[in-house]
Design brief:
Layout: H1 6-14, H2 34-41, H3 47-56, E1 57-60, E2 64-68, E3 74-77, H4 83-89, H5 96-99, E4 101-102, E5 110-111, E6 117-125, H6 127-134, H7 139-157, E7 163-170, E8 175-184, E9 187-192, H8 195-198, H9 202-205, E10 217-221, E11 247-252, H10 263-292, H11 296-324, H12 326-344, H13 346-352, H14 355-377, H15 385-399, H16 416-424, H17 431-449, H18 454-460, H19 465-475, H20 481-497, H21 501-543, E12 556-561, E13 565-566, E14 572-573, E15 576-578, H22 579-585, H23 596-601, E16 610-615, E17 627-629, E18 635-642, E19 660-664, H24 665-675, H25 679-686, H26 691-694
Antiparallel strand pairs: 1-2, 1-6, 2-3, 3-10, 4-9, 5-9, 6-8, 7-8, 9-10, 11-12, 11-17, 13-14, 15-16, 16-19, 17-18, 18-19
Helix pairs in contact: 1-12, 6-7, 7-21, 10-11, 10-14, 10-17, 14-21, 15-20, 15-21, 17-19
Length: 695
């Protein structure tokens, strides 16, 4: 099997005793794997160690992780995690993606328009409060009670704009925790390499190994006083690479896993959702490739979208293969065995015996609603930054006028500052790309929902989709941050009075989008949480809580060791690559082209320095930018990818094959000092090291 070996998968699914022997799990900081670590590695992190790592780790609100690495607020993350900032700071005259950026000093650091960084400071369980509020309720009543209670808890917690609070559902609704974060919205670009080295190998090398990427960037967080943030908890850089079999931790924010879903929920992904999304993303990729061939500027403005789509395509295809292969069979057997245990216990049967059937009914409704929800509420029909901004303004005007507990969750007091920051920030938008993507996505709405659909007819009328897109994009003024701010400040009166065509489109489709969202929340999400919580409680009764919950893009700790792997073909894959191999792999042509800075520095580099390496750490998307740290809490690497086998990690983990791929700390140090001549940064990152030692 391509993504999960049968022997390892069987051990994962059926052998509870094997859990302590595999490096599986993305653990919450309030339930760390202390016992597993002690038994396998002889290391027991104390509260001080865990607190320091938690406070030094951060989340980039748009889907990545990072860590404080100096007392003056430096944040280490991936190059691909700051791509949005780099694109916003770039222009046809200065393309920071292709040329990179290295600040000469703090004064020359550049502010990212809409980067938000979150630092977890406290976790509080609120399960009892949620349970009491939703007990005995179903459907709309359950959904409303859940939304209202979550919003109330978050508002009580978020005492200021600098605090973000999220109620996180764990174990499919079996537990709820309140996560309190410090929110930082002044992040400045300090260093990012050229995309040719940050993503060396491009899509062909993505999710593969050996790798030779310097996928790193540095931001600096500034405080309300406009000065660099003073940080008490940060992760110093190690003075040497991690050795084979060394224990390594990742502290990051895995975006989501589906290991605890029922088979009914997995089957809809395998049989309906994934095939449709794969087809759509393949088409979207083709549109962007052709757009990029129009010229250098078109290629530049499409690059971020294209790289993201290519990455997503590999992920979705890998997930489909995992579910369509032996893993799906094994998970079905595991579910049947667990249901038999529940049915054999009268108390558990009363608690959860009908839960699987209840979820199965919700799944059928989900399938029936998927196309409409995907097109309208997820806004796949409106593939446009300008439309997204218009919808946010329209909904902000409506939602902010309501009591906090009645709002859509993203517009509550606790969540809205993230949207507000983007609405008032200035950044460039390519009208040409907007027209291309909006025209195509409007046509796809017609294909998915049919020409006879009432919403389709109302939006398109008799217009050609590309002609309509051109009218909308050239007619709107929402590309101007000042216009957006005036509309936001003006509230509902300003939105109601606006004649902006993109605002009018957002208003036109909003009722239909809200309707399908409400139906999903009431008839799909509510029963899945209710019945999922019952299954989780039965699992707690039988197995305890040693198994971590599915990932939720909230802070998690994973552990593993530095080691290569053996392919099913028998091929041995070493655990590291060296700098000299980068030059051997380079061809001079995209995507194996090296930037001039690396060609010029070749003679001064130590070719034996480790470039990239792999570990058994259990990670998924969202972990990008996670620090890889040793037992001392020192950075030995920076997670940026997984190998091809890890793609199936959404549904299960195989210690024999799944690998986390990271940039070695010594490669980062050597690059900053010798390629980019940023010795001031090396000194800040390495503390007491002298200029000579950095060399």
């Amino acid at each position: 099997m391509k993504y999960l070996s049968l022997v390892a998968a069987a051990a994962l699914l059926f052998g509870a005793a094997t859990t302590a022997h595999a490096d599986e799990g993305m653990f919450t900081f309030n339930n760390p794997p202390v016992k597993q670590l002690s038994e396998k590695y002889g290391f027991s992190p104390d509260k001080a160690w865990l607190d320091r790592v938690q406070l030094a780790s951060v989340r980039l609100a748009r889907g990545c992780s990072g860590s404080f690495v100096s007392k003056d607020g430096l944040v280490l993350t991936n190059q691909h995690c700051v791509r949005g900032c780099v694109e916003q700071l770039s222009s046809a005259k200065e393309d920071l993606s292709s040329k990179g950026f290295t600040a000469k000093d703090q004064a020359s650091e550049r502010k990212c328009p809409d980067v938000e960084i979150n630092q977890l400071v406290e976790i509080t369980e609120v399960t009892d409060r949620i349970t009491k509020a939703t007990e005995g309720k179903t459907g709309k009543e359950f959904a409303d009670a859940l939304k209202s209670t979550q919003a109330t808890i978050q508002k009580e917690c978020a005492t200021g704009a600098d605090i973000r609070c999220d109620v996180v559902s764990l174990y499919q609704g079996g537990r709820y925790d309140l996560y309190k974060y410090r929110r930082y919205q002044d992040a400045r670009l300090v260093f990012t390499p050229e995309v040719d080295i940050g993503m060396f190998g491009g899509d062909p090398d993505n999710f593969n190994f050996p790798r030779y990427d310097l996928d790193m960037s540095l931001l600096r967080v500034y405080g309300a006083d406009g000065k660099p943030l003073k940080v008490d908890n940060y992760l110093p850089w190690a003075k040497a690479s991690a050795a084979e079999n060394d224990l390594v931790f990742t502290s990051g924010n895995p975006g989501g896993t589906d290991r605890q879903l029922t088979m009914a929920q997995l089957y809809i992904q395998r049989d309906y959702v994934l095939p449709r999304v794969i087809a759509r993303y393949s088409e979207r990729r083709g549109i962007l490739v052709e757009f990029g061939r129009r010229g250098a500027e078109q290629k530049r403005v499409a690059e971020e979208k294209l790289l993201g789509i290519e990455n997503s395509l590999k992920v979705y295809k890998g997930r489909y293969d995992a579910l369509a292969g032996s893993l799906g069979v094994l998970k079905a057997k595991a579910e049947a065995d667990f249901r038999a245990k529940v049915d054999a216990d009268p108390n558990l049967k009363q608690m959860a015996g009908d839960a699987w059937d209840g979820i199965a009914k919700a799944v059928q409704i989900d399938r029936a609603l998927f196309d409409r929800r995907y097109m309208l509420e997820t806004a796949a029909a409106f593939d446009s930054q300008l439309f997204t901004l218009a919808r946010q303004l329209v909904r902000a005007a409506d939602e902010r006028a309501k009591p906090n507990e009645q709002r859509l969750r993203e517009y509550t007091d606790a969540a809205f500052p993230a949207i507000q920051q983007r609405l008032v920030s200035a950044f460039p938008i390519s009208n040409e790309l907007e027209i291309e993507m909006l025209g195509w996505s409007l046509a796809s709405m017609r294909a998915w929902l049919s020409p006879d659909d009432a919403t389709v007819k109302a939006v398109l009328g008799k217009d050609d989709t590309f002609d309509l897109a051109k009218k909308l994009v050239t007619g709107t003024k929402l590309g101007d941050a000042k216009v957006r701010k005036a509309l936001l400040d003006g509230g509902k009166a300003a939105i109601d009075a606006s004649k902006d065509p993109m605002i009018l489109l957002a208003k036109q489709v909003d009722a239909d989008a809200r309707a399908v969202r409400a139906k999903v929340e009431e008839e799909v999400d509510a029963p899945e949480k209710k019945f999922g919580g019952a299954i989780a409680k039965a699992r707690f009764a039988l197995e305890g809580t040693s198994t971590p919950p599915d990932a939720t893009f909230s802070p998690r700790l994973s552990y593993g060791k530095v080691t290569g792997w053996t392919e099913p073909t028998g091929k041995q894959v070493p655990y590291f690559t060296v700098t000299s191999g980068l030059y051997e792999r380079a061809t001079g042509n995209d995507p194996f082209r090296l930037p001039k800075s690396w060609l010029d520095a070749k003679a001064s580099l130590d070719g034996n320095v480790h470039m990239n390496f792999v570990t058994t750490n259990d990670i998924v998307g969202g972990n990008s930018g996670s620090p890889m740290i040793n037992q001392k809490g020192e950075v030995v690497g920076l997670a940026f990818d997984g190998n091809i086998h890890s793609i199936g990690g959404d549904y299960g983990y195989d210690a024999a094959l799944n690998r986390c791929v990271g940039v070695d700390v010594m490669a980062m140090k050597q690059a900053l000092a010798k390629v980019y001549k940023a010795e001031w940064l090396v000194r800040e990152l390495t503390g007491a090291e002298t200029r000579a030692e950095a060399r």
